[in-house]
Structures are given as structure tokens and as C-alpha cells.
Write a structure and sequence with these properties.
Layout (H helix, E strand, L loop, with lengths): L2 E10 L4 H21 L6 E7 L2 E10 L5 E9 H4 L8 H9 L8 E5 L2 E10 L4 H4 L3 H6 L20 E8 L2 E2 L3 E2 L2 E4 L1 E3 L8 E3 L6 H6 L7 H19 L7 H8 L5 E7 L9 H12 L2 E4 L5 E10 L5 H26 L4 H8 L3 E3 L3 E2 H19 L3 H13 L7 H5 L6 H9 L4 H9 L14 H20 L13 H15 L5 H14 L7 H22 L4 H9 L5 H14 L5 H15 L16 H19 L3 H10 L1 H10 L7 H19 L11
Parallel strand pairs: 7-10
Antiparallel strand pairs: 1-3, 1-7, 2-3, 4-6, 5-6, 7-8, 9-10, 11-12, 13-15, 14-15, 16-17
Helix pairs in contact: 9-10, 12-13, 12-17, 12-19, 13-16, 13-17, 15-16, 16-17, 17-18, 17-19, 17-20, 18-20, 18-22, 19-20, 20-21, 21-22, 23-27, 24-26, 24-27
């Protein structure tokens, strides 16, 4: 079958940099799925993207759909054939609808019933005729934010300026938002000499490069990285590259040229975090450090253009940055006059949420919650003292001018200002750490006090919103509750805190209820919170490669200590490949299945045992219970459960649990229920799939 290359390009006004990578991947996925759904063969898809274009080059696309054979199901045999053996009207109608005759019918059995079937040949259509369907794919792209322009109904990320759709040297004709497809693309907005007329799709990348557009995003990123490394090497500097910043800068330019500029050394008196944040967030500049790691009065930016007049460009950027840093210096100087007590008073007038109250009220709940958790964890008096003070003043920097200007510095400036005001290093560090982990790549709080306040603060946030019925759904999570719950889980796992999640949730929920915030019953909120945290643990276990059924099993039991739950899942995963795992799980599952018939756990009366197997299993149960109380790792506990498999099997072989004697039956069910309770401390093992 002959093949051609397919080029699709959407030309736009400059798009927001943060939208581009996800959108080009979305476009590629939709086109790939469309080709596969339509049985159109192709070799590979190359992705191109810049601030002004989203493009795909699909290599070696079949000129025609593959022919296919489709099986159609018709009426049951008893309906298709009359009593005299003749074909019924239903059979004739069925085949006519398929473009065939009754001679093409054959029968296949489905669930014990024979049905008429036919196979029909479908000739593939020319690919060129089908490519007009790309219009729907382009129009159907989704973006975080859309806009409308002129009098058009289409909502899109930015106005569409041109469209290229070429299949070989032919243009696939259609129109979107008043723009007709063609074979004409555009180069760099300022450096290109004119429009680019393409004669074949494979010319695309080279033709754009000739007009100052590096269309391949990875090549563009590699060029930026190479230029940064060259500047480093020539000057003996270190340029710490933030990958998120690099990605954003890459999506801001079509023809990258890196250059450096300077700022006054006096600005180095400002904390380096402020300078770096100002450079990154406001100007998209890369900071520069010395070999020893000290911040230098330099920056690197990436120009969307060539090397001409590069000195003027550098001076222009220096002028803009100087103004930014002057503002930062002013804010920092003004903040030196701020007193912590005065800042805390201001927080009494700052509303956190209209239904939750002020930040001061939230801080007081966090302080109480941290104290309650500390009591149960039996922390040292020093840790309790540091955590209490950190919780009390943890949000004071929110009313500083610096954090107002740079919200991402909350906590960081809190630590610095706290030290300046004479707070202990432990308290200051905890103020910064209580926001951690700030994102998926961030670490958890290092200090016990920081971890204590971090968990209390995040937990209060989650519980208050759940109490109002504000619960994440789908992709909607405006208050980042999932991220905060994941932070709590990660901290509990790494710190191995010996406190159950149920206890933590209960302590916080009590404080929220006392504050009169909740609009739902405590029972509803508690249930939703436990399920919410289970989902966070489930995702974490999936990332660790734990089998889905083992995850369901450990989450089906009591939640308990989070780090212990992870250990249970890993212990079951390790044991699942062992010989005898299937038989052990079947024996334990049998206990759980029988125990489910018992609603209320009663006492076991050994006097009512009728055979030695009941007694032996009872003795094993007592032994297991004592060892479980002493505490042990999950792998050892799993082995203890496996060790009672012979007693369980003997019990069921010689004992009828559902005895006709009611007293005996109740006693045996009590025994099963009691043993099931100990099994459930490991997992709901009857959810484990064994083969």
C-alpha cells in the first residue's frame, strides 16, 4: 500500500507557556487514536510546538484504510428458522440490512443459545476523504482557560491565525473559525522574511528553521541548556537550572538565545530566596551562583531572537530587574519594623474562609491540635514547647509586605523574620517546615516540631472544608486538599509515628465541631475523611507497584498506623510469590467468610467446645492475640497467621460451625469472629485474588 506523510499545524496568537506541552500531547493522542480507530496505518508521529503553533508530522500514513471483516449478530436460531426449516422474515430482514443474503448465515452459540451471524466485508476508504474529520479534533481540544474573539462561537485558547493540513502535496480542505486550511505557515514574528509555502510535509521543520523557528521543543530546550552550559564554562559560574522554569522559558521562545546581565551588589543584602524568586517568577530569569554556592549579582535570560544587538537587550533586562529588586528591597526594609505580636493581631482581621473564620482562629485550632497530638505521641517537653510556639506564630509572615508580593515565600520569610525577632532556631525552622511538603518533589519536615505543626495545619484545612461539604471531585480541587492529604500521609510514613489515622482525624474533627464550623454530621464527615485518606494511600501503594487486590485487602481492614499499613501491603506483596500463599489465604479467608455471619462479637466459652480441634484453634488464637498486643512488624505478623493454617484446616474438617445446637453454634461463631478480628489487623484477606 502506498503511503504519504501528513502535516497538521494550528497557528495561533501566542499561547500561555504553561498550556503548550499538555496541549500538544493532547493533540497527538487524539490524532493517534483517530488513526487507529479508523484502521489507518502509520509509522510514527513527530510533535512540534512553539508559543505560536501546535503541529504534528505523521510519517508514512497509508493512503487507504485497511479492508476489514465485521461479524454481525442476528436473531436466535429458533426465530431465524421456521418450524418447516425455511428462513423467517426476521432472518431475511437481518441479512438484507447487512447487504447480504440468508445463504451467508451461520450460527454461533452464546450462553447456551444459538444465534444467526454473518460476516461482511468492508472496503477501506481513501484516507484523504477521511482527513476532513481532523477539523473536529482541532475544534475539540480542551484548555485550562478559553477565550472568544470577534463574533465567533468557538472558544479556544487563543485566536487561530492559520491552519496547515497537507497529505502528501495535497491540502485537506476545511475551515475553522473563518480560517481556511492551506500549505502556508509562518516563521518568527519579527525575524522571518515572509510566509513559508510548503510543497511537502517533510519540509516543515527545516523550512521553519530557515525563518528563525526551532519547531522541535526538545531541540529548542537542548539549545537553551547548551547555551547555559557554555556561559557557565566561559565564566566559571554555576547556573542552577529549575526544570519547571526551563520548561516555561522553552515555551516562551521560538528561536532561543541566552544572554546574561548584572544587578547591583547592594541587592545581595536581601535574602537570596527573595532575589531568586523575583528573578524566576517575575522575569523568568535563571540565577547565577559562584563555585562555592554563593548567589552572584548576575542573571541569565533567554531571548526570543538572534544575537543582533544583544548588548541592548541585556541592558533593557537589567533595567527591568533593577526596578523589581528595588521594590523587593523596599518591602524587606519595611518588614524589619514589623513585630510578631502586631502581625498576629492583624491576622484576627484576615478572613481565611467566610464559613471557617479568620487565619488567627485557624492558627489557634492548629495550636490546640498540635498539642493534643503531642500528648498522645509523648514527645519531649522541648519538642512540645517548640511546636506550640511555632503553631502560635506560624502565619505571622502572611501580613508582611514581602509575602504579600511573593506568596510563594510564605514560611521561608517566616523563618527568617522569626530569627531576626529573637525566636529560637527550632521554632523558626518549624514555621518554614509546616508548609512542607509543598509539592510532589519536596521533602517532608525534618524536625519533630515542624512535622507536628505541618500535620496539624494540613489536617485542620482538610477537616474544615470536608465539614462544610467542600470535597474534591474529579479534577476539581481548588484548595489542594489532595496534595495536603498526601503530605500528611508521606510525613506519617517517613516519621513512622505510632498514632492511628482514625485518632488524628477524630481529634481534628472534635475541634472543628466545637468551633461550630461543620454543616454536616460528624459521622458523615468522619466516614468521608477516612475514605479520602484511603484513596491517597491507595495511589501511593500503586506508585510502589503493589498489586491492586493486595491494596484493596489492606485498605479493607482497619486503617490504623499509616506506616504500618504500608508495611502490611509490602509484606503481602513479598509473600504472594511464595509457595503455599494461595492455601494460606484460602484458610484465612474461610474464617472471615464464616465470621461475616456474626453481627455482634460475644464471649468464647471453652466449656462448650465439643472436639479437640476447637480447643487447639482457641489456644492458637490466644497465643496470636498476646503476640499481637506486644507489637511486631507486618512480615512477622503475617507469618504468625500463616502458622495457624493447619489448625484452621483441621477445625473446618472436623467441625460444623452452623450446628443445630444454638448455644454451640453461637460459641463457634464467636470463635470465628474473634479470630477474624486478629486476621483483619493484617488485611481483609478474602479480597486477595489467589490462583
Amino acid at each position: 500500500m502506498t503511503k504519504r506523510n501528513l502535516l497538521l499545524e494550528i497557528g495561533l496568537e501566542e499561547m500561555p507557556a504553561r498550556f503548550i506541552t499538555d496541549t500538544i500531547n493532547q493533540l497527538a493522542s487524539k490524532v493517534e487514536n483517530w488513526l487507529k480507530t479508523n484502521n489507518i496505518g502509520f509509522e510514527a508521529i513527530k510533535l512540534y510546538s512553539t508559543p505560536r503553533r501546535l503541529a504534528l508530522l505523521v510519517m508514512n500514513v497509508d493512503e487507504r484504510q485497511e479492508d476489514s471483516e465485521e461479524e454481525a449478530k442476528g436473531p436466535a436460531k429458533k426465530i431465524a428458522l421456521a418450524a418447516d426449516g425455511e428462513w423467517s422474515k426476521a432472518a431475511v430482514g437481518f441479512t438484507r440490512g447487512q447487504g447480504l443474503t440468508v445463504e451467508d448465515i451461520y450460527f454461533k452459540e452464546i450462553n447456551g443459545v444459538e444465534y444467526a451471524h454473518v460476516k461482511k466485508f468492508i472496503k477501506g476508504k481513501d484516507t484523504f476523504e477521511l482527513l476532513v474529520e481532523l477539523k473536529a479534533i482541532i475544534s475539540g481540544l480542551t484548555f485550562p482557560k478559553n477565550m472568544r474573539w470577534a463574533d465567533l462561537e468557538l472558544r479556544y485558547v487563543r485566536p487561530i491565525k492559520w491552519l496547515v493540513t497537507m497529505f502528501g502535496n495535497e491540502v485537506v480542505p476545511f475551515e475553522i473559525a473563518g480560517v481556511q486550511t492551506g500549505n502556508v505557515t509562518r516563521g518568527h514574528r519579527f525575524l522571518a522574511e515572509g510566509e513559508i509555502h510548503l510543497t511537502a510535509p517533510q519540509e516543515y521543520e527545516e523550512a521553519l528553521l530557515g525563518q528563525y523557528v526551532v519547531a522541535d521543543a526538545q531541540k529548542r530546550k537542548d539549545a537553551i541548556t547548551s547555551q547555559l552550559e557554555k556561559i557557565e564554562e566561559e565564566n566559571g559560574w554555576i547556573v542552577p537550572v529549575d526544570e519547571d522554569l526551563l520548561e516555561e522559558v522553552n515555551n516562551l521562545v521560538e528561536y532561543p538565545t541566552a544572554l546574561y546581565g548584572r544587578f547591583e551588589e547592594e541587592f545581595l543584602e536581601i535574602p537570596s530566596e527573595v532575589l531568586i524568586t523575583s528573578m524566576k517568577e517575575h522575569q523568568r530569569y535563571f540565577p547565577v551562583k559562584s563555585k562555592s554556592g554563593d548567589l552572584l549579582p548576575l542573571f541569565i535570560t533567554v531571548r526570543n531572537g538572534d544575537h543582533l544587538h544583544i548588548e541592548k537587550v541585556a541592558r533593557g533586562n537589567e533595567k527591568v530587574l533593577r526596578a523589581r529588586l528595588a521594590d523587593a528591597a523596599f518591602f524587606y526594609k519595611e518588614d524589619q519594623r514589623m513585630q510578631i505580636d502586631a502581625a498576629l493581631e492583624k491576622l484576627k482581621n484576615v478572613v481565611y474562609h467566610e464559613d471557617i473564620g479568620t487565619i488567627a482562629e485557624k492558627s489557634e485550632r492548629v495550636r490546640k491540635l498540635a498539642g493534643l497530638i503531642a500528648d498522645r505521641m509523648e514527645f519531649s517537653p522541648d519538642v512540645i514547647k517548640f511546636a506550640d510556639r511555632a503553631a502560635q506564630i506560624s502565619k505571622f509572615d502572611l501580613v508582611s509586605q514581602m509575602v504579600y508580593e511573593f506568596p510563594e515565600l510564605q514560611g521561608i520569610m517566616g523563618e527568617k523574620y522569626a530569627l531576626q525577632k529573637g525566636e529560637s532556631p527550632e521554632v523558626a525552622a518549624a514555621i518554614n517546615e509546616h508548609y512542607m511538603p509543598r509539592n510532589a518533589e519536596d521533602s517532608i519536615p525534618a524536625s519533630p516540631a515542624g512535622a507536628l505543626v505541618a500535620i496539624a495545619d494540613k489536617l485542620d484545612t482538610i477537616v474544615t472544608f470536608f465539614s462544610l461539604g467542600i470535597i474534591p471531585s474529579g479534577s476539581q480541587d481548588p484548595y489542594a486538599l489532595r496534595r495536603q492529604a498526601t503530605g500528611i500521609v508521606q510525613t506519617l510514613i517517613e516519621k513512622k509515628w505510632n498514632i492511628t489515622l482514625e485518632n488524628l482525624v477524630g481529634l481534628s474533627l472534635n475541634l472543628v465541631s466545637e468551633a461550630g464550623i461543620t454543616k454536616r454530621t460528624d459521622e458523615e464527615v468522619y466516614h468521608d475523611l477516612i475514605q479520602f485518606f484511603k484513596l491517597r494511600v491507595k495511589h501511593l501503594l500503586q506508585e510502589r507497584g503493589i498489586r491492586y487486590d493486595l491494596i484493596d485487602a489492606v485498605l479493607g481492614g482497619e486503617f490504623g498506623i499509616v506506616s504500618g499499613l504500608i508495611e502490611k501491603a509490602e509484606a503481602l506483596q513479598a509473600a504472594s510469590s511464595n509457595e503455599g500463599f494461595k492455601e494460606s489465604m484460602e484458610a484465612l479467608s474461610r474464617v472471615l467468610n464464616i465470621a461475616s455471619k456474626k453481627d455482634v462479637l460475644g464471649d468464647i466459652d471453652p466449656e462448650r467446645f465439643e472436639n479437640e480441634y476447637e480447643q487447639r484453634l482457641y489456644e492458637k488464637y490466644l497465643e496470636l492475640g498476646k503476640k499481637a498486643e506486644d507489637g511486631m512488624d507486618a512480615a512477622s505478623y503475617y507469618q504468625l497467621l500463616v502458622d495457624i493454617k493447619p489448625e484452621i484446616n483441621d477445625y473446618f474438617e472436623h467441625t460444623m460451625v452452623m450446628s443445630d445446637n444454638q448455644d454451640v453454634r453461637e460459641n463457634r461463631l464467636n470463635q470465628m469472629a474473634a479470630l477474624a478480628t486478629l486476621i483483619m489487623k493484617l488485611a481483609k484477606v478474602n479480597d486477595i485474588v489467589v490462583k
